[in-house]
Design a protein that fits this description.
This protein is of the alpha/beta class. About 25% of the residues lie in helices and about 20% in strands. Among the domains are: about 15-135, Immunoglobulin-like (Sandwich), CATH 2.60.40; about 290-350, no CATH class; about 605-685, Immunoglobulin-like (Sandwich), CATH 2.60.40. A hairpin with a 7-residue loop joins strand 6 (about 110-120) and strand 7.
Length: about 675
Amino acid sequence: MVRRTRWVRVIVACSLTLFLVGCGGGSGSGSAQTTPSGQTPVPASVANFTAVPSELLSSGGSMTLTWQATNADSYSLSVNPSSGVGGMPVGSITGDSTTVTLPPNAGSGPSTYTFSLTATGATGTSPATTTTTVTVDANGGVASLTGIDWPAQVIYFLMPDRFDNGNSNNDNGGPGDVAAAQPQNPMGWYGGDFQGVTNRIQAGYFTQLGATAIWMTPVYLQGPAQSGPSTNNPNGWQSFPYHGYAPWNFNAPDPHFGSIADLQSLVQSAHANRTAVILGQIVNDAGIGYPPYVQESNAIASGQMTLDNSAQSVNTFLFHHFDSNSGQCEPYLGSYNATWDCPLDDLPDFDSDNPAVQSALDAASAGWLGTLGLDGIRLDAATYVQNSFWSQYLQYLRAQGYAPLTFAEVLDGAPDIVGSYTQAVVGFEGAENYPLYFAITQSGLAPGQPAYFGYSNMAAVDYAVQQDEKDDAQPFLMVNFIDDQDMPRFTSLLINAGVAASDVFPRWQIAEALSFTLPGIPMIYYGDEVGMEGTWDPYQAVANGQPSNNIREPMTLWTSAQRQAAGVQGYYDWLQALAQAHALQPALQTGTYTPLFVPGVTDPNVYIYLRGSGASSVLVVINASSQSVDVTQLPGAAGGLPAPGVPVGSPLSLVGGSSTLTLSGCANGSCITGILAPWSVQVLSP
C-alpha cells in the first residue's frame, strides 16, 4: 500500500527566523465588552505588558511582547527610539502578542528601548497605556584570551545554580522565568549565579586550586518546571531546569543566573586572572513545552500542516515529529536515522537539515562567542545531531573569526566512536574522554564493575589510551575526568561497591592521578576537591527515596578551615598537587605515552608508564592491589623493570610518596626497583 502524502503550507504565528526566542501568547482576552444601554461604558485596561527576553546580546535579535487586557477593541504600539526596530505593526493590533526585532548595538554602552502599548476601548472612554523596556547590550564584548596552550590547562567544571549564590536578588528569577528558588527541593533552583562565580574568581579560589579554565553548563533562558517523580515525592516537588538544558531562548541568559552584563563581568574577571572560560551550547533540542514546537505540533494535529518527508517539508519544518503513519520521525534528509531524527527524552528536536534552522543555531552560538569572548564551547548531545550539521556549524564559526576550543559530549565508551568526532569529517578539536572514564571505573578500582573491552584490571586503562591515540585526531585535547554531571561521583561509586571507608580515598587518588597524568586535559567536577558524594541526578535521587544522594548538591566547603572540620582537606590537597605537577611538567601535557608494565590476567594490578622521554620524562607508578609489590618480582623485571632512556638515580617525587623507588643501571640502561605500597600512586621525575 502506497501512502499518499499532501502538503498544506500555512503561516504560523512564530516566524521561522525568530523561533530561537520562542513565541508570545498572553492569556488575557482582547475583546471589548458590550455596554448595556444607559450604563457608563467600562474603560479598557491592560496589564502584564512584558518583553521576552528583556535583554539581548549586542547582536540584537527578536523578542516577543505579550500583554493581558480587558474591555479593549484594539491596541497600538510605539517604541522610542524607533530607528532600526523591525516588525513594528502598522496601525492597530488585535490579539495579545506581537514579535519585533531590535538592531545590533555597535556602541560602547547599552541601548534601551521603551515600548508603549495603548489599549482602546468603548467610545467615550479613555485609552489605557503601559510601557516596558528592553536592553540591547553594548558591543564592548570581552576579548578571548590569546595563546592558550590547552594541553597545559586544568578545567574546573561547574553548574552555576549549584555553585555559589552571589546575588540573592535574582534567586526568584525575573522576566521570562520567574520560578521561585526552592533550595529544599533537590530539583529546584538553589540560587547560584554569575556573581557567585565572579566572586570566587576574584577571591582566587580557582587559581589557588590550580584550575586555569572554568567550564559552565548552558545559561540560556529556561522553560517552566515539569512534574516531579510520582513515587517517593510526598512534597509534590516539581522538576525545574536549574541545569540549563531546557532552553526557551537561545540568545539570552536566564535571570536566575543574572544579566549579560553580569556574565561579561565574569569573563572579564576570569581573563584578568589568566583563566579561560568555556560555556555549554545546545543545538539538538529545546526545552519541554517550547512554544514554537507546541505551535508546530498543534498545526500538524489540526491538519493545518501535513507531516511528510518531502524536500519541502525538510526545508519548512523547524522540528522532527513522530508520524504514526510511517512509524518514523519526520522530516529527515537522506537515510533514516532514529538517533538523529527522533527526539531525545521527548525534548523538541530541531530539524537541523533545514538550512534556516542551521543558520539560526549557528548565529546563536556566534552571538555568545562574540559578546562574551568565550575561549571554548562544549556541545551537548553531539551523537544526536548528524555529522553534516556539525561540519557546517564548526566551519561557520571559524569563518566568522572565532577559534574557541570546541569539544563534544559523546557519551560512549568506544574509543573509535568518540574519536570519530575529532576527525576532519566532523571537526571537533576534542571530546569528553568517556573511553578513559569507563576504563578507569572498570579497571578494578571499583569492585563489581563489568569488564572494559574484556579487561578488568589496569590493562583496561592502557587499552583505552592506546586506542585513543589511534582514533583521536588530537589526543592531548580530549577532556579527562572521573566525575561529571551525568555519572555517579567516584567516591559514591566506591562506597556503593562496598569499599571500606578507609580505602575510598586511596582508590580515588589513583583514579584522579590517571585523569591528570594520561594524555588529555584534566577536568575537576565541582565538589571533587571536597570529596563530594552522590549517586544519581536529583530527579532519580528523589524517585529512589534518597533526595540528598545526588550528583548536583551545592558547594558549601570553601575554606581550608571548613574542609578540615569536615575531614576532607586531603581531597583538595591531592588535586592541588596534581594540578601543580601538570602545570610544571610539559611531559604531562604533550609527552608521548609509553607503557612500561601493564598487568596480565594473573599479574598484580600494577600499572607503570612513562610520559615524555629522557631527563624531561615523568614516571607514574600505580599499585591498585591490596598487597605490597616488589617491582623486581613483576614478570620480565627480575633485575628491575626496564625504563629505557630514563636517567639513573633517585627520582624526585612530584605527587604521592608511599613507595621507595630507585632507577638503577642495568642492561637496558636503567631499571626501576623498589617496593610498591598497597593502593598507592606516585608521580616521579628523574
